[in-house]
């Protein structure tokens, strides 16, 4: 009797126990396939105020800060003053001094020439009066009288030319003197009348102040950016292999931005891609995709310009499909397979898979609703081995 008990105990201890596994039951339900990636928000229309001339940007009072509200054509966003002339080297200085001396001489020459012509004009007018007096007594011919008149008109024209020439020489002299006299090093007091006030081109908020400090900028240099923070859109740089699957109008849900998920739709997929280096140093072809919000601004008003979000773009969706967890799939040759549990044993079953996402896959054939499959099977799970569902404490 003792021997029989010992034999039974030995058989019981030697008998293989079922392997504890995690099981999942297949059901039918809704399923969608999405393309997930990081994205960022941006104001749809950003207005960059730039310097219209090369000059000095002055501080305005009160100063503007990022987020301040501005009004179109009313709020002064920048004040500019013409720059002071730059210093020149010693050789240029000597050249300017020589040019100034030459200009002074030219002015004296033009003034002397003008006085000579004035004297000639006064003499010709006296001669004309004498000729007119003699012509009334017919003491001279008409030809002599016409010659006297011609001399007066000629001298008057010459005097007008000399005056213009003198004005030209004086202006040239003033130009050289200005270039030479601006090297004293003294900084004149700013004249408010000479400053240019740049006003906001649109009503909105200050998004970025590029030129914060007072300083000299070149013409066209950006100074400040303005936009409406409620006029937001989302820009995602998606892989080109994913972008070809996306159609304008596709639904999108946005999360991981610090608030509740919000809805959107694809507005545009750019027709041209660009190369982007990933965090791992891999060159990737990316395509810019623009997403618009469909939820009211009250749900996402906390978002601002250049905020990080995660977008999930739906490329396929069904209401009633049979799905299996991705964790149950494994490769058997070129086919997908799962370990289906039947009569307490794992049976390797070939299935046909359709659409899939990072959680579930669509089952086209090989399984039915209610079947149970092994999740994440280990190397101990083989075809025909006894399995039991692991107890979850």
UniProtKB/TrEMBL annotation:
InterPro entries: MdtA-like_HH (IPR058624), UPF0194_transport (IPR050465), YknX-like_C (IPR058637)
Domain YknX-like C-terminal permuted SH3-like: 321-388
Pfam families: HH_MFP_RND, YknX_C
Signal peptide: none
Subcellular location: Cell envelope
The keyword Coiled coil belongs to this UniProt entry's keyword annotation: yes
One cellular component (GO) term of this entry: cell envelope
The entry's keywords: Coiled coil
Positions of the Multidrug resistance protein MdtA-like alpha-helical hairpin domain: 118-167
Keyword Cell membrane: no
PANTHER family linked: EFFLUX SYSTEM COMPONENT YKNX-RELATED, UPF0194 MEMBRANE PROTEIN YBHG
UniProt-recorded name of the protein: Putative Secretion protein HlyD
Annotated source species: Mesorhizobium amorphae CCNWGS0123
């Amino acid at each position: 009797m003792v021997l029989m008990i010992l034999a039974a105990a030995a058989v019981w201890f030697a008998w293989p126990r079922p392997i504890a596994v995690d099981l999942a039951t297949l059901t039918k339900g809704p399923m969608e396939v999405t393309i997930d990636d990081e994205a960022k928000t941006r104001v749809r229309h950003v207005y960059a105020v730039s310097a219209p001339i090369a000059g000095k940007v002055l501080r305005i009072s009160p100063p503007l800060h990022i987020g301040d509200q501005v009004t179109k054509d009313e709020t002064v966003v920048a004040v500019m003053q013409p720059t002071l002339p730059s210093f020149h080297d010693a050789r240029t200085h000597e050249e300017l001094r020589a040019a100034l001396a030459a200009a002074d001489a030219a002015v004296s020459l033009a003034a002397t020439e003008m006085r000579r012509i004035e004297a000639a004009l006064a003499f010709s007018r006296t001669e004309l009066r004498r000729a007119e007096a003699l012509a009334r007594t017919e003491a001279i011919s008409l030809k002599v009288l016409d010659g006297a008149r011609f001399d007066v008109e000629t001298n008057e024209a010459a005097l007008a030319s000399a005056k213009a020439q003198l004005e030209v020489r004086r202006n040239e002299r003033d130009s050289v003197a200005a270039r030479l006299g601006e090297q004293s090093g003294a900084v004149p007091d700013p004249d408010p009348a000479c400053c240019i006030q740049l006003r906001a081109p649109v009503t909105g908020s200050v998004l970025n102040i590029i030129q914060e400090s007072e300083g000299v900028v070149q013409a066209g240099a950006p100074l400040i950016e303005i936009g409406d923070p409620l006029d937001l859109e989302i820009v995602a740089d998606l892989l080109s292999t994913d972008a070809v699957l996306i159609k304008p109008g596709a639904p999108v849900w946005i999360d991981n931005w610090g608030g509740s998920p919000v809805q959107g739709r694809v507005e545009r997929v750019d027709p041209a891609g660009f190369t982007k280096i990933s965090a791992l140093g891999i060159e990737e072809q990316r395509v810019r995709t623009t997403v618009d919000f469909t939820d009211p601004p009250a749900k996402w008003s906390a978002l601002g310009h250049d905020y990080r979000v995660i977008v999930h773009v739906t490329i396929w969706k069904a209401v009633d499909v049979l799905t299996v967890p991705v964790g149950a799939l494994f490769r058997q040759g070129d086919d997908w397979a799962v370990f289906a549990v039947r009569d307490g044993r794992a049976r390797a079953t070939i299935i046909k898979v359709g659409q899939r996402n990072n959680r579930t896959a669509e089952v086209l054939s090989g399984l039915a609703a209610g079947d149970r499959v092994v999740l994440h099977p280990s190397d101990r799970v083989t075809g025909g081995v006894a399995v039991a569902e692991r107890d979850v404490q």
